[in-house]
Specification:
Mean pLDDT: 95
Number of strands: 4
CATH architecture of the largest domain: Up-down Bundle
Strand order of the largest sheet: 2-1-3-4
CATH topology of the largest domain: Glutathione S-transferase Yfyf (Class Pi), Chain A, domain 2
Shape: globular
Distance between the termini: 30 Å
Helix content: 40-55%
Strand content: 5-15%
Low-confidence stretches: none
Order of helices and strands: EHEHEEHHHHHHH
Amino acid sequence: MYKLFYSLKSASMGVRVMLEEIGAPYELIPTTVDMDRPRPPEQLTINPNGWVPVLVWDDGAMYECAAITVFLCDRHPEANLAPAVDDPARALYLQTLVYCSNSVQNAFQLTYYPDRFADTPADEPSAQRRGKRRLRETWKIIDDQIGDNEWVLGDRFSAADIYLFMLTTWLRSARGHPAIDEFPNVKRIADVVVQRSSVQLVYEPWIANPNY
């Protein structure tokens, strides 16, 4: 049994999709992404940053979405969501997850949380503008990487496609983000991933209202 500290509009939704795909039993522990609201003490003990996702199991706990993704795939190889360690596709799988985590997500943070990157409130609009440009740059890298592939890793569905879809749900035109239509290869994969039963369950609020 896993416990997942969980909040809508966060990367914890992507981890929940992973758990659904794996078929592992789990419990959702409600929390928030609002740093001004109280969060469960156990969550803060594991991740003092106060962020989600945080995953707990019988003899361990961890945070960081990309790390949790790698951990779950390796712990449940029967789900066939990631290349094995000796598979040639493993390099691209890890590269994509880390790039999405370190570069694409960082660009989103610039637009959503500019105060983390600016010395003064007056500087925050500059951070947001750079974030918008950086989103376009990083998504273009991923789109070009996909090319004519059916999936991120070629002809096999993987956790990288789930991660990709999760990030597309954070795009907001109201914040000046680029439209997903600018990245046709990304959009093509996202349009297929959203049809999976696991995604339909977890992302029902977003599917009903993409600006929820």
